[in-house]
Design brief:
The chain has 12 helices and 26 strands. It is α+β, with helices and mostly antiparallel strands and 470 residues long. It has 4 domains: 50 residues, no CATH class; 203 residues, Nucleotidyltransferase, domain 5; 89 residues, DNA Binding (I), subunit A, CATH 1.10.30; 62 residues, SH3 type barrels. The strands form 7 sheets. Strands 5, 6, 7, 8, 11, 12, 13, 23 and 24 form a 9-stranded mixed sheet that branches. A 5-stranded antiparallel sheet has the order 21-20-19-18-22, with no helix packed on it. It has a 4-stranded mixed sheet with strand order 2-1-4-3, with helices on both faces. Helix 2 packs antiparallel against helix 3 and helix 3 packs across helix 10. The chain is globular and about 80 Å long. The N and C termini lie close together (9 Å). The C terminus is likely disordered.
């Protein structure tokens, strides 16, 4: 795993190995610039005095997770055939986890609060004439995916000498995902051609209740994943249920309602069509993301999903978001991909909400107005060394502050509660992201959409300001 290097004027230099970074720090030739990702700043060198090699940042945009790979590229020419081959050496692997679902839920809750104020409190005239949207407008949960990805593109360009970008332009055929054999005029007819919604559901679910197999009883249309929890009105999210089962289920998710009957739950999930939310999100954001990449001064290479999969199969690389990014575009040889992955989770920078609510919407606790306590704020990366007691040990992770001075630390191995502030040492200020390390799984099988072949690890131990390899 490479260490990012800056010169004395904070201009990017070629990344170096951990051993070399440790020697530079011990000899006083470098300072720690940033802990995660670990970056050092040289005190005796300028970028003009260094030789830089071509470095390309490759990106695999996704709905929930976006993979990134920082690779060093070199081209060799075969003297016998004259063929030019491109060799890529992976310097760093990253996976960015988006929080679009949290933004969507927050906006849904805000809409419910506004609706309640409009109906229960003083009269508020509905607004419907002042909501014009500019061309290229995206929903906030979708715009977040573009913005956070571009944020890390700009960050990595500041910390490493990136000379080019590479991305994959996804295009999902949503009807082919539901029906692989669709062709011709069936594209225009759609799913409900010749059927009403109820008649379509009666044929799909065999004219019986999906939860208890009751027949010859009044059946109602039920949402498998409730709308109050983000479910949609698509036919793939509808089923038939009898009145007693519908009342018992309420607004619970089908996984919660059928937790005692996993076989029936698996059958329902297999019978219904797969949700297309992730594919729709990627289709909606792909051109907006491409336009922002094209606006940079860097060369942008475009790759297709088919070529990425062909590269991964040919090079015997397991399925993962970050490794998909490393295989984007033209790749003849790939080295150095067996290394830890830096997982970056978008956590946000807090909330304006002043209270915590119960499931019924009533306040159950009030938050303090001060965002910091004892020199710390929620989201800071801290190291806690507890010398005695039940929680004796060393912990590294994101901190959640309390005015009482008893903090919680979210580490790679779980949540540690009740750590006193005097044991904590600040490592890095909060920047809206949480960091932890993962490793590439050893299996070579294909992972499903939205899954990654990585396993969580704790943050590596730090010694003399340099992160150890896992």
């Amino acid at each position: 795993m490479a260490v990012l290097v800056l010169d004395k004027w904070k201009k990017p230099l070629m990344p170096c190995s951990e051993k070399r970074a440790r020697l530079l720090l011990e000899r006083g030739r470098a300072r720690v610039h940033r802990m995660v990702p670990f970056t050092i700043r040289l005190v005796d060198r300028r970028a003009e005095d260094s030789v830089l090699q071509p470095v390309r940042l490759k990106i695999d945009p996704g709905s929930k997770t976006t993979g990134m790979a920082l690779v060093r590229e070199s081209e060799t020419v075969d003297t016998a055939t004259g063929e030019v081959s491109r060799r890529s050496v992976v310097l760093m692997l990253l996976e960015l986890q988006h929080r679009g679902h949290a933004i969507r839920d927050a906006l849904t809750q805000r809409r419910a609060f506004r609706r309640r104020r409009r109906t229960k409190l003083r009269y508020r005239a509905p607004r419907f004439l002042n909501r014009t949207r500019p061309a290229g407008w995206l929903a906030p949960s979708l715009q977040h995916r573009v913005d956070t990805t571009m944020t890390w593109v700009h960050r990595l360009c500041r910390w490493s000498p990136v000379t080019g970008l590479a991305t994959m332009l996804h295009r999902f055929d949503t009807q082919a995902l539901q029906n692989p054999d669709i062709s011709g005029i069936e594209y225009q007819r759609g799913t409900l051609f010749g059927y009403e919604v109820r008649e379509y559901l009666l044929e799909q679910w065999g004219r019986k209740c999906a939860y208890c197999d009751a027949e010859h009883v009044p059946l109602t249309i039920d949402h498998i994943h409730p709308r109050s929890r983000g479910g949609s009105d698509r036919v793939s999210n509808l089923t038939l249920s009898c009145v007693p089962c519908n009342q018992r289920k309420g607004n619970r998710d089908v996984a919660e309602f059928l937790a005692h009957d996993p076989k029936r739950l698996a059958r329902i999930e297999a019978q219904r069509k797969a949700p297309l939310r992730d594919a729709a999100a990627v289709n909606s954001t792909r051109w907006a993301f491409w336009q922002q990449l094209a606006a940079t001064v860097l060369d942008v290479e475009i790759g297709s999903g088919g070529r990425t999969k062909w590269n991964r199969k040919r090079l015997s690389v397991p399925k993962a978001h970050c490794l998909d990014a490393a295989c984007v575009g033209r790749v003849d040889h790939l080295q150095g991909w067996q290394q830890p992955v830096l997982s970056i989770k978008a956590t946000g920078r807090g909330s304006y909400q002043r209270t915590r609510l119960t499931k019924y919407g009533f306040p159950r606790g009030y938050l303090t107005r001060s965002k910091s306590a004892f020199g710390f704020q929620t989201g800071d990366l801290v190291r806690a060394v507890v010398t005695k007691g039940k929680k004796a040990g060393s912990y590294l992770g994101r901190v959640a502050i309390r005015a009482s001075g008893s903090f919680n630390i979210q580490t790679g191995n779980g949540l540690v509660q009740g750590i006193h502030h005097r044991f904590c040492t600040l490592q890095q200020r909060a920047d809206g992201y949480g960091y932890f390390w993962t490793k590439i799984a050893s299996n070579q099988g294909e992972a499903g959409m939205g899954r990654s072949a990585t396993a969580a690890l704790s943050l590596p131990a730090l010694k003399d300001g340099v992160s150890r390899a896992i």
